[in-house]
Specification:
- The protein starts with a helix and ends in a 5-residue tail after the last helix.
- Helix content is 56%, strand content 14%.
- Strands 1-2-5-4-3 form a 5-stranded antiparallel beta sheet, sandwiched between helices. Strands 6-7 form a two-stranded antiparallel sheet.
- The protein is of the alpha+beta class and 279 residues long.
- It contains 7 helices and 7 strands; from the N terminus they run H-H-E-H-E-H-E-E-E-H-E-E-H-H.
- Helix 1 packs antiparallel against helix 5.
- The chain is rod-shaped and about 120 Å long.
- The longest helix has 66 residues.
Length: 279
């Protein structure tokens, strides 16, 4: 075939473009997986912080109700049970029972109310102007999120704590949120995300393969038709020229070369120069 080399080059070009499209699509899907995993870690701590804040809000409500009822067990022991505050306030909030919270005093004589090393650091951040403080912590051999939020003393506090100065931050609630459950939920969600993106990647890959094969077949048909036209053009009994709008010769047949140009092609020359073509 006259255009066999052009056909091969076109096939190679289509194949290269298909490979580039596959590479781009794979990188795009892989990027989505990476970003979902990257931002998923931030979402994990965000969810833990929300759970800790919810627990503190529930505990504060429980303390207010306890004070109104004249009971102060939570204040005396410094411990807040996992379910008492929720049941007592009749809030429809579902929190894992593994979440622990307790009251701390900066200068407490009771061991259960004393701040540990992490809480001392957290109170320092509060003193420096932070509204709350939270960070990753290893709790009982596994990762947990610790969160501390100050409690401003109110008039009702003086019923039991007459020595406390109103407006200071002697009282805070510290919460420990185990991350095992949240991590498992995140991994489950991440697995679903990977499966969904993998399906989309496979669909895209099949689409690229379909388009590649379709374009390859179409290019073959096009060049076959061009070969036929070229053959008819070359075997025409009369001299023939094919030129563009600038009257530059694009193609001539064998009969034209024999009659006018003798031994060489006149492609690229102006039509006016062909008449006096001498070699």
């Amino acid at each position: 075939m006259l255009y066999q080399n052009h056909t091969l080059k076109t096939k190679q070009r289509i194949f290269v473009y298909s490979l580039l499209a596959t590479l781009f699509w794979s990188c795009l899907c892989g990027g989505f997986i990476f970003l979902s995993d990257y931002f998923g870690e931030d979402a994990l701590f965000s969810d833990a912080k929300i759970m800790a804040s919810t627990r503190i809000d529930s505990d504060i409500t429980y303390l207010h109700r306890s004070t109104a009822k004249g009971t102060s067990d939570a204040l005396n022991t410094g411990k807040l049970s996992a379910n008492t505050s929720l049941q007592d306030t009749q809030q429809d909030i579902k929190l894992p029972s593994s979440i622990q919270s307790h009251i701390i005093f900066r200068n407490s004589l009771r061991p259960e109310n004393k701040a540990d090393a992490w809480e001392v650091e957290a109170l320092q951040h509060i003193t420096n102007g932070a509204e709350n403080y939270g960070s990753l912590w290893e709790h009982e051999g596994s990762n947990a999120y610790r969160f501390l939020r100050p409690l401003m003393t109110e008039a009702s506090c003086f019923q039991c704590h007459t020595a406390q100065e109103k407006g200071n931050i002697p009282l805070a609630i510290s919460v420990i949120v185990p991350l095992a459950g949240l991590t498992a939920a995140k991994q489950h969600q991440q697995q679903h995300m990977i499966e969904l993106i993998s399906i989309l990647w496979l669909i895209g890959l099949l689409g690229i393969i379909f388009i590649w094969r379709r374009l390859t077949r179409l290019s073959l048909v096009i060049f076959q038709e061009r070969d036929k036209i070229q053959l008819l053009f070359d075997l025409a009994p009369n001299g023939m020229l094919l030129f563009n709008s600038r009257l530059e010769v694009l193609l001539e047949n064998s009969e034209f070369i024999d009659k006018f140009c003798r031994t060489t092609s006149c492609r690229g020359r102006q039509f006016g120069e062909i008449i006096n073509c001498e070699h």
